Amino acid sequence: MINNKLLAFSGYSNSGKTTLLKTIIPLLCEQNFKVAMLKHAHHDIEIDIPGKDSYELRKAGALQTIIACDKRYAMICETPNEPADLKSLVNKFTNIDLVLVEGFKDEKIPKIICHRSETKKPLFIDEFTIAVASNIKLETAVPQLNIDKPNQIVEFIKNYLFNK
Question: Can you give the pTM of this predicted structure?
């Protein structure tokens, strides 16, 4: 099973997920948490550059390619017949305290739903929703957080994941 502390941020497009994560990740890091991030994309992604050796070798048929330098590395895995599942992706992280996930709203994992009035979308809540981060007051049975107060959300995360 998934061994890491795991929390998803889900919601409709333009609900503030990425903006919120960009503000809470540094706050968690300042408190010495080792944070990993897993973002789901609904479209085909290409992170390698056509014409580069690594791209050409992968396109030649390599199922896994690692591109490395002194400061970082990236692993690209081709999964044409078996899409990567959340569990296997999360288990690739090492030496971290917390995995934050953006998207994956249909997964059976704890999640904070991001909701902004401007999106004009209905509120999505399922049995795995532990809170809603919103810019408006909502009628909901789960805790409500102010999406514009990242410190409040960080404290909620710490209490939920580390003070159980």
Answer: 0.86
